[in-house]
Amino acid sequence: MTIRVLIIDDSATMRAVLAARLSGNPDIQVVGLACNAAEGRQLIKELEPDVVTLDIEMPGMNGLDFLDKIMTLRPTPVIIVSGLTQAGSDVTARALGLGAVDCYCKTDYAGSAMQDGGKLAGMVRQAAQVKVRRRAAPEAPHMAAPMRAVSASGGRSATRLIAIGSSTGGVEALQVLLRNFPEDCPPAMIVQHVDARFAPAIARTLNSVSPATVVLAEPDMPLKRGHVYLAPGDDRHLMVAGTTSLHAKLRPGEPISGHRPSVDALFMSVAQRVGADAIGILLTGMGADGAKGLLAMHQTGANTIAQDEATCTVFGMPRVAISLGAARTVAPIGRIAQHAFS
């Protein structure tokens, strides 16, 4: 099946470059080019593309506001085309939180105008497999209840560590999850599959909504209550180390389950070091990373939770974990904190 793509960018040169990078792929068809949000909105209605590439900085309505409208009115898989300034990275992180499925750096491959090694085409193929939802639909009914549940819970002291894994759609899901964490939660570690260049901005975005403090993990960083540690996203696996006192470990290595950092690497280390005193949470994502690690945690007696199909952007990683019998609980994203802390 041919994937139909609409390109929205205010630069005629960039529109041509993106179109050229996709046109050589027989399974991808560029069906339209738009220079701003107004034109893009009309073409989305007329053409009903499978995937949209969207620039952030555009005259009139910017890409972030337009993305919000797309996800609210006509949910469509969107790939953000972004620069690498700090401001651009912050906006891209916010876009991922609004439901964009991936981000493509327009400054990459600048020296080879028409070639990028198939990077954009690969993103388009993955985006075409994504099920997008109307934004905020799963969390709205449950925002109050999980907060009461976690604040009233009397069993939190037994939990020494929370380990979380996510991929496609994960930034959006993590915002919902962490918003419902208590301020004094046990230390939590997150592996989210994302370009390392956007990880600091994602940490800032998550920190802005979480009662707990969200930071990027660093080597040998002590794990403290009330803190959430996000993997830097570079070529190092995030793991837990220590026995009496726990600390973060970042180590180079081959990809595990196709990823580096790998959710499986984190979960396996938690199963070994923390055992039954841990909580494992596996969220939306393509593939199977984290499924075997969640099973290992489950087998040690840890509380293991998988996001349900209805609220996943991609029901891949949780689906495999559930099929293995790794998840003690399957829950919508808006209720996972309640199950973790009650």
From TrEMBL:
Name of the protein in its database record: Protein-glutamate methylesterase/protein-glutamine glutaminase
PROSITE patterns the record matches: CHEB (PS50122), RESPONSE_REGULATORY (PS50110)
Gene Ontology CC annotations of this record: cytoplasm
Phosphoprotein is among the record's keywords: yes
SMART domains assigned: REC
Role of this protein: Involved in chemotaxis. Part of a chemotaxis signal transduction system that modulates chemotaxis in response to various stimuli. Catalyzes the demethylation of specific methylglutamate residues introduced into the chemoreceptors (methyl-accepting chemotaxis proteins or MCP) by CheR. Also mediates the irreversible deamidation of specific glutamine residues to glutamic acid.
Annotated source species: Novosphingobium umbonatum
Residues annotated as domain CheB-type methylesterase: 155-342
Catalytic residues (UniProt): S167, H193, D289
Limits of the Response regulatory domain: 4-121
Keywords on record: Chemotaxis, Cytoplasm, Hydrolase, Phosphoprotein
UniProt xrefs under SUPFAM superfamilies: CheY-like, Methylesterase CheB, C-terminal domain
GO MF annotation terms: phosphorelay response regulator activity; protein-glutamate methylesterase activity; protein-glutamine glutaminase activity
Cell location: Cytoplasm
Annotated transmembrane regions: none
Catalytic activity: [protein]-L-glutamate 5-O-methyl ester + H2O = L-glutamyl-[protein] + methanol + H(+); L-glutaminyl-[protein] + H2O = L-glutamyl-[protein] + NH4(+)
Membership in a protein family: Belongs to the CheB family.
Comment text on domains: Contains a C-terminal catalytic domain, and an N-terminal region which modulates catalytic activity.
Pfam families in the record: CheB_methylest, Response_reg
EC number from the UniProt entry: 3.1.1.61, 3.5.1.44
Underlying gene: cheB
GO biological process terms, semicolon-separated: chemotaxis
Gene3D superfamilies: 3.40.50.2300, Methylesterase CheB, C-terminal domain (3.40.50.180)
Post-translational modification: Phosphorylated by CheA. Phosphorylation of the N-terminal regulatory domain activates the methylesterase activity.
